[in-house]
Amino acid sequence: MTHTGDPRLAALRAAFPFTVPILAGFLFLGLAYGIYTNVSGFSFWYPMAMSALIFGGSLEFIATALLLSPFAPLQTFLLALMVQGRHIFYGISMFEKYRGTGWKKPYLIYGMCDESFSINYTTKVPQSIDAGWFMFFVTLLNQLYWVAGATIGGLVGTQLPINTDGIEFAMTALFVVIFIEQWLNDPQHYTGILGLAAAGIALAVFGRDAFMLPTMFIILVGCLALRPFIEGRGGMTFTEQCITIGLCALASVLTRALPFSCSRRKNQHRLWSAILAMFSRLPSLACSSPTVSRTQHSSAEITACRRLQESL
Fold first, then answer.
1. How far is Cα 63 from Cα 51, in angstroms, rounded to an integer?
2. Which residues contact 76 (CB under 8 A, 6 or more apart)?
3. Are 180 and 38 in contact, with CB atoms under 8 Å apart?
4. Do residues 141 and 46 lie in contact, with contact meaning Cβ atoms separated by under 8 Å?
5. How far apart are CA 259 and CA 252, in angstroms?
Protein backbone atom coordinates (compact mmCIF):
# COMPACT_ATOMS: atom_id res chain seq x y z
CA MET A 1 0.00 0.00 0.00
CA THR A 2 1.35 3.42 -0.95
CA HIS A 3 0.44 6.69 0.68
CA THR A 4 -0.25 9.75 -1.40
CA GLY A 5 -0.50 13.32 -0.31
CA ASP A 6 1.34 14.94 2.55
CA PRO A 7 4.03 12.57 3.96
CA ARG A 8 3.78 14.32 7.32
CA LEU A 9 0.09 13.47 7.64
CA ALA A 10 0.79 9.86 6.65
CA ALA A 11 3.55 9.65 9.27
CA LEU A 12 1.24 11.13 11.93
CA ARG A 13 -1.45 8.57 11.16
CA ALA A 14 1.10 5.76 11.34
CA ALA A 15 2.64 7.02 14.59
CA PHE A 16 -0.52 7.72 16.57
CA PRO A 17 -1.62 4.09 17.19
CA PHE A 18 1.79 3.30 18.68
CA THR A 19 1.39 6.15 21.18
CA VAL A 20 -2.13 5.33 22.38
CA PRO A 21 -0.88 3.13 25.29
CA ILE A 22 1.50 5.96 26.24
CA LEU A 23 -1.43 8.40 26.13
CA ALA A 24 -3.26 6.45 28.82
CA GLY A 25 -0.19 6.11 31.02
CA PHE A 26 1.11 9.65 30.58
CA LEU A 27 -2.23 11.29 31.26
CA PHE A 28 -2.54 9.40 34.54
CA LEU A 29 1.10 9.83 35.63
CA GLY A 30 1.19 13.43 34.43
CA LEU A 31 -2.00 14.07 36.38
CA ALA A 32 -0.39 12.54 39.47
CA TYR A 33 2.69 14.71 39.01
CA GLY A 34 0.62 17.86 38.52
CA ILE A 35 -1.44 17.12 41.62
CA TYR A 36 1.71 16.41 43.64
CA THR A 37 3.26 19.71 42.55
CA ASN A 38 0.06 21.61 43.23
CA VAL A 39 -0.47 20.24 46.73
CA SER A 40 3.19 21.03 47.42
CA GLY A 41 2.29 24.70 47.10
CA PHE A 42 3.04 25.54 43.45
CA SER A 43 0.69 26.94 40.83
CA PHE A 44 -0.13 25.02 37.64
CA TRP A 45 2.55 26.99 35.77
CA TYR A 46 5.25 24.98 37.51
CA PRO A 47 4.21 21.47 36.41
CA MET A 48 3.35 22.77 32.94
CA ALA A 49 6.75 24.46 32.50
CA MET A 50 8.77 21.64 34.06
CA SER A 51 6.99 18.94 32.04
CA ALA A 52 7.76 20.84 28.84
CA LEU A 53 11.34 21.85 29.65
CA ILE A 54 12.66 18.95 31.75
CA PHE A 55 10.43 16.24 30.21
CA GLY A 56 11.70 13.53 32.51
CA GLY A 57 9.06 12.06 34.79
CA SER A 58 11.17 10.80 37.67
CA LEU A 59 13.40 13.88 37.59
CA GLU A 60 10.37 16.16 37.66
CA PHE A 61 9.12 14.53 40.87
CA ILE A 62 12.58 15.06 42.34
CA ALA A 63 12.71 18.64 41.05
CA THR A 64 9.51 19.46 42.93
CA ALA A 65 11.11 18.23 46.15
CA LEU A 66 14.27 20.20 45.36
CA LEU A 67 12.24 23.40 44.96
CA LEU A 68 11.14 22.99 48.57
CA SER A 69 14.75 22.60 49.76
CA PRO A 70 17.53 25.17 50.24
CA PHE A 71 19.14 26.41 47.02
CA ALA A 72 21.98 24.04 46.01
CA PRO A 73 22.74 24.37 42.27
CA LEU A 74 25.77 22.06 42.13
CA GLN A 75 24.07 19.22 44.00
CA THR A 76 20.94 19.71 41.87
CA PHE A 77 22.90 19.45 38.62
CA LEU A 78 24.83 16.35 39.73
CA LEU A 79 21.68 14.63 40.96
CA ALA A 80 19.91 15.40 37.68
CA LEU A 81 22.85 13.93 35.75
CA MET A 82 22.67 10.72 37.76
CA VAL A 83 18.90 10.36 37.42
CA GLN A 84 18.94 11.01 33.67
CA GLY A 85 22.19 9.15 33.00
CA ARG A 86 20.35 6.28 31.29
CA HIS A 87 19.60 8.56 28.34
CA ILE A 88 23.27 8.43 27.39
CA PHE A 89 22.83 4.77 26.50
CA TYR A 90 19.61 5.52 24.64
CA GLY A 91 21.47 8.05 22.53
CA ILE A 92 24.22 5.58 21.67
CA SER A 93 21.58 3.16 20.42
CA MET A 94 19.91 5.78 18.23
CA PHE A 95 22.95 6.97 16.24
CA GLU A 96 21.90 5.18 13.06
CA LYS A 97 18.17 5.67 13.56
CA TYR A 98 18.51 9.46 13.69
CA ARG A 99 20.92 9.68 10.76
CA GLY A 100 19.54 11.75 7.91
CA THR A 101 16.60 13.24 9.84
CA GLY A 102 17.78 16.79 9.16
CA TRP A 103 16.37 19.62 11.24
CA LYS A 104 14.19 17.17 13.19
CA LYS A 105 17.22 15.56 14.83
CA PRO A 106 17.71 18.20 17.60
CA TYR A 107 14.12 17.78 18.75
CA LEU A 108 14.31 13.98 18.50
CA ILE A 109 17.31 14.11 20.84
CA TYR A 110 15.64 16.60 23.19
CA GLY A 111 12.39 14.64 23.44
CA MET A 112 13.90 11.15 23.74
CA CYS A 113 12.13 9.86 26.85
CA ASP A 114 11.97 6.17 27.80
CA GLU A 115 8.71 5.53 25.97
CA SER A 116 9.65 7.39 22.77
CA PHE A 117 12.98 5.59 22.68
CA SER A 118 11.24 2.24 23.06
CA ILE A 119 8.83 2.89 20.17
CA ASN A 120 11.33 4.52 17.81
CA TYR A 121 14.00 1.91 18.41
CA THR A 122 11.87 -1.21 18.06
CA THR A 123 9.28 -0.23 15.46
CA LYS A 124 9.88 -1.25 11.84
CA VAL A 125 8.53 1.73 9.95
CA PRO A 126 6.89 0.79 6.61
CA GLN A 127 8.85 1.85 3.55
CA SER A 128 5.94 4.02 2.42
CA ILE A 129 6.26 6.12 5.61
CA ASP A 130 9.01 8.66 6.17
CA ALA A 131 10.93 7.30 9.20
CA GLY A 132 12.11 10.75 10.27
CA TRP A 133 8.60 12.14 10.42
CA PHE A 134 7.32 8.97 12.10
CA MET A 135 9.87 9.29 14.95
CA PHE A 136 9.20 13.03 15.15
CA PHE A 137 5.46 12.56 15.69
CA VAL A 138 5.97 9.72 18.17
CA THR A 139 8.22 12.02 20.20
CA LEU A 140 5.94 15.05 19.86
CA LEU A 141 2.74 13.19 20.75
CA ASN A 142 4.29 11.59 23.82
CA GLN A 143 5.50 14.95 25.07
CA LEU A 144 2.11 16.55 24.46
CA TYR A 145 0.43 13.77 26.45
CA TRP A 146 2.78 14.33 29.38
CA VAL A 147 2.48 18.13 29.35
CA ALA A 148 -1.31 17.91 29.12
CA GLY A 149 -1.55 15.50 32.05
CA ALA A 150 0.79 17.58 34.23
CA THR A 151 -1.04 20.81 33.41
CA ILE A 152 -4.46 19.34 34.17
CA GLY A 153 -3.15 17.93 37.43
CA GLY A 154 -1.74 21.31 38.36
CA LEU A 155 -5.08 22.98 37.65
CA VAL A 156 -7.33 20.60 39.55
CA GLY A 157 -4.93 19.38 42.25
CA THR A 158 -6.39 21.28 45.17
CA GLN A 159 -9.97 20.83 43.95
CA LEU A 160 -10.00 17.04 44.18
CA PRO A 161 -11.48 15.63 47.42
CA ILE A 162 -8.89 12.84 47.69
CA ASN A 163 -5.99 12.00 49.95
CA THR A 164 -2.82 12.73 47.96
CA ASP A 165 -0.36 11.19 50.43
CA GLY A 166 2.07 8.92 48.59
CA ILE A 167 1.05 10.05 45.12
CA GLU A 168 4.73 10.60 44.24
CA PHE A 169 5.09 6.79 44.26
CA ALA A 170 3.21 6.62 40.93
CA MET A 171 6.42 6.80 38.88
CA THR A 172 8.06 4.02 40.90
CA ALA A 173 4.97 1.88 40.43
CA LEU A 174 5.18 2.42 36.65
CA PHE A 175 8.74 1.14 36.46
CA VAL A 176 7.88 -1.86 38.62
CA VAL A 177 5.03 -2.79 36.27
CA ILE A 178 7.30 -2.37 33.22
CA PHE A 179 9.91 -4.63 34.82
CA ILE A 180 7.34 -7.31 35.65
CA GLU A 181 5.98 -7.20 32.08
CA GLN A 182 9.47 -7.58 30.61
CA TRP A 183 10.24 -10.42 33.02
CA LEU A 184 7.10 -12.30 31.97
CA ASN A 185 7.84 -11.81 28.26
CA ASP A 186 11.51 -12.83 28.45
CA PRO A 187 11.95 -16.61 28.85
CA GLN A 188 15.68 -16.30 29.62
CA HIS A 189 15.52 -13.43 32.15
CA TYR A 190 19.14 -12.47 31.43
CA THR A 191 18.49 -8.72 31.36
CA GLY A 192 16.17 -8.82 34.37
CA ILE A 193 18.68 -10.71 36.52
CA LEU A 194 21.48 -8.45 35.27
CA GLY A 195 19.51 -5.34 36.19
CA LEU A 196 18.69 -6.59 39.68
CA ALA A 197 22.28 -7.69 40.31
CA ALA A 198 23.72 -4.42 38.98
CA ALA A 199 21.37 -2.31 41.11
CA GLY A 200 22.08 -4.41 44.22
CA ILE A 201 25.86 -4.23 43.80
CA ALA A 202 25.88 -0.49 43.04
CA LEU A 203 23.51 0.24 45.92
CA ALA A 204 25.68 -1.70 48.36
CA VAL A 205 28.92 -0.08 47.17
CA PHE A 206 27.90 3.52 46.39
CA GLY A 207 24.81 4.04 48.55
CA ARG A 208 21.29 5.16 47.66
CA ASP A 209 22.34 8.69 46.63
CA ALA A 210 24.95 7.73 44.02
CA PHE A 211 24.15 4.27 42.68
CA MET A 212 22.29 5.19 39.47
CA LEU A 213 25.23 5.81 37.09
CA PRO A 214 27.28 2.82 38.35
CA THR A 215 24.20 0.67 37.83
CA MET A 216 23.87 1.88 34.24
CA PHE A 217 27.56 1.20 33.61
CA ILE A 218 27.35 -2.32 35.01
CA ILE A 219 24.26 -3.03 32.91
CA LEU A 220 25.99 -1.72 29.77
CA VAL A 221 29.08 -3.89 30.29
CA GLY A 222 26.92 -6.87 31.20
CA CYS A 223 24.71 -6.49 28.12
CA LEU A 224 27.78 -6.32 25.88
CA ALA A 225 29.23 -9.44 27.49
CA LEU A 226 25.94 -11.36 27.35
CA ARG A 227 24.87 -10.06 23.96
CA PRO A 228 24.96 -13.48 22.18
CA PHE A 229 22.70 -14.99 24.83
CA ILE A 230 20.35 -12.00 25.09
CA GLU A 231 19.84 -11.95 21.32
CA GLY A 232 19.38 -15.72 21.25
CA ARG A 233 22.15 -16.41 18.78
CA GLY A 234 23.99 -19.69 18.49
CA GLY A 235 27.18 -20.73 20.19
CA MET A 236 27.97 -22.10 23.59
CA THR A 237 25.84 -21.45 26.59
CA PHE A 238 27.42 -19.67 29.53
CA THR A 239 27.77 -23.00 31.37
CA GLU A 240 29.48 -24.59 28.36
CA GLN A 241 31.86 -21.63 28.12
CA CYS A 242 32.78 -22.03 31.80
CA ILE A 243 33.40 -25.76 31.32
CA THR A 244 35.54 -25.09 28.24
CA ILE A 245 37.66 -22.53 30.04
CA GLY A 246 37.99 -24.83 33.05
CA LEU A 247 39.13 -27.76 30.91
CA CYS A 248 41.72 -25.60 29.17
CA ALA A 249 43.02 -24.39 32.51
CA LEU A 250 43.12 -27.95 33.86
CA ALA A 251 45.05 -29.18 30.81
CA SER A 252 47.48 -26.29 31.14
CA VAL A 253 48.19 -27.09 34.78
CA LEU A 254 48.51 -30.83 34.13
CA THR A 255 51.03 -30.44 31.30
CA ARG A 256 53.17 -28.17 33.45
CA ALA A 257 53.00 -30.36 36.53
CA LEU A 258 53.31 -33.73 34.78
CA PRO A 259 57.13 -33.80 34.45
CA PHE A 260 57.58 -32.99 38.12
CA SER A 261 55.06 -35.58 39.29
CA CYS A 262 56.67 -38.33 37.17
CA SER A 263 60.30 -37.59 38.02
CA ARG A 264 60.16 -39.43 41.37
CA ARG A 265 58.37 -42.56 40.17
CA LYS A 266 59.91 -45.94 39.38
CA ASN A 267 59.96 -47.23 35.80
CA GLN A 268 60.20 -43.68 34.51
CA HIS A 269 61.23 -44.85 31.02
CA ARG A 270 58.07 -46.94 30.52
CA LEU A 271 55.93 -44.18 31.95
CA TRP A 272 57.45 -41.56 29.69
CA SER A 273 57.10 -43.83 26.65
CA ALA A 274 53.41 -44.25 27.37
CA ILE A 275 52.97 -40.50 27.91
CA LEU A 276 54.82 -39.62 24.67
CA ALA A 277 52.80 -42.19 22.74
CA MET A 278 49.60 -40.66 24.06
CA PHE A 279 50.71 -37.14 23.24
CA SER A 280 51.79 -38.16 19.75
CA ARG A 281 48.15 -38.93 18.95
CA LEU A 282 46.74 -35.72 20.40
CA PRO A 283 47.60 -33.41 17.47
CA SER A 284 45.86 -35.66 14.95
CA LEU A 285 42.84 -35.94 17.23
CA ALA A 286 42.71 -32.20 17.81
CA CYS A 287 43.14 -31.29 14.15
CA SER A 288 40.45 -33.75 13.03
CA SER A 289 37.98 -33.04 15.80
CA PRO A 290 34.37 -33.58 14.68
CA THR A 291 33.33 -30.32 16.31
CA VAL A 292 35.80 -28.28 14.26
CA SER A 293 36.20 -29.40 10.67
CA ARG A 294 39.50 -29.10 8.85
CA THR A 295 37.99 -26.51 6.53
CA GLN A 296 37.52 -24.22 9.52
CA HIS A 297 41.23 -24.17 10.34
CA SER A 298 43.51 -21.57 8.81
CA SER A 299 46.50 -22.78 6.80
CA ALA A 300 48.79 -21.64 9.62
CA GLU A 301 46.89 -23.76 12.16
CA ILE A 302 47.03 -26.85 9.91
CA THR A 303 50.78 -26.38 9.37
CA ALA A 304 51.32 -26.02 13.12
CA CYS A 305 49.43 -29.26 13.79
CA ARG A 306 51.47 -31.14 11.20
CA ARG A 307 54.76 -29.85 12.60
CA LEU A 308 53.68 -30.86 16.09
CA GLN A 309 52.86 -34.36 14.85
CA GLU A 310 56.28 -34.63 13.18
CA SER A 311 58.12 -33.40 16.27
CA LEU A 312 56.47 -36.03 18.45
1. 11
2. 66
3. no
4. no
5. 13
Q: b/e for 110-132, b at 16 or more Cβ within 10 A?
A: ebbbbbbbebbeeeebeeebbbb
- Specify the DSSP class assigned to residue 209: T
- CA atoms of 20 and 71, how far apart (whole Å): 39
Q: Is 289 helix (H, G, I), strand (E, B) or coil?
A: coil
pLDDT of the residue at 135 = 95
Positions in the chain whose pLDDT score sits under 70: 1-4, 158, 160-171, 174, 178, 228-247, 249, 251-312
Whole-model pTM above 0.90?
A: no
CB atoms within 10 A of CB 94: 18
What is the C-alpha to C-alpha distance for residues 134 and 13, in angstroms, rounded to an integer?
Answer: 9
**Can you give the pLDDT at residue 225?**
78
How far out from the chain centre does Cα 132 lie? Answer: 23
Give residue 191's pLDDT.
78
Return the pLDDT at 174: 66
What single string gives the DSSP state of each residue in 130-188?
-HHHHHHHHHHHHHHHHHHHHHHHHHHGGGS-S--TTGGGHHHHHHHHHHHHHHHH-SS
How far is the C-alpha of 45 from the C-alpha of 226, rounded, in Å?
46
Residues in the chain: 312
Output DSSP code: residue 128. Answer: T
pLDDT the model gives residue 130: 92
